[in-house]
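FW: tagging you since you asked about this chain on Friday. Here's the raw sequence from the shared folder, copied in full. Didn't touch anything.
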Amino acid sequence: MEFIKAQGLGNDFVMLVNPNVQTNDLSDLSRRLADRRYGIGCDQVIVAFENVNDIKVRFFNADGSEAESCGNGSRCMAKYLMQQKQKDSITLETLGGSLKCQLENDMVTIKMPPPTFEILDGPQSLGHLSTPDAVAVTVGNPHLVCFVDNVDSVAEYGEGLENHPAFPLRTNVDFVKVLNSEHLQLKVWERGAGITPACGSGACASMVAAYAHKKVDQKVKVSQTGGDLWISWDGQELFMAGPAVIVFSGVI
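HL: got it, structure written out here
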């Protein structure tokens, strides 16, 4: 089987394009490919199925569970397909919605699906695990955004919040520190993967939550362990821009 290894801000992926495999085997295959000692190693496996009319993309976490979407992974898959087709734009169809992608130099900009959000009473609904101005945000996949003074505390609380009964399908957990009205610091506990160097959809969710609380302007830089993303949101359209790197290809 041919594969492509890619990374976006250190969030790494094994990408398969039109693999000759039964779709009901993708979960087990993803667990094996994601294993860093006995497989290739990655945070997520991304599978693209191309036909004449569209490109359907599916995302599988390291534990084999399927995610609706992935921001960093979408940039990587979009960049690879655009380079292969010698195009500067492409649309990916995901379970979380359509993603319109644009390539400019080495940066990929994605118009995200319209987000939905709900400001929660954190302590009341989530107990001591959350913060007073927590926001549940969906940007194609679910996120819980918590505003904190120390983003590293996600290591202590992330797993408990991911599996909290309030989220029957589990959730990604985003711990955000507002540095100023144009700059956020973020660390994410990803559903099914744990702490990763970066999360694209988490950066988008954090921007939406911060904007809902009037903490930021319409465009912010979101800094994570793996690097920076630029997110814009005017209450109507949500865009994410950032790097995507094709690392190597091979056969397993």
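FW: The two ends are 5 Å apart (CA to CA).
HL: agreed, and The first strand starts at residue 2 and ends at 8.
FW: great, closing this out.
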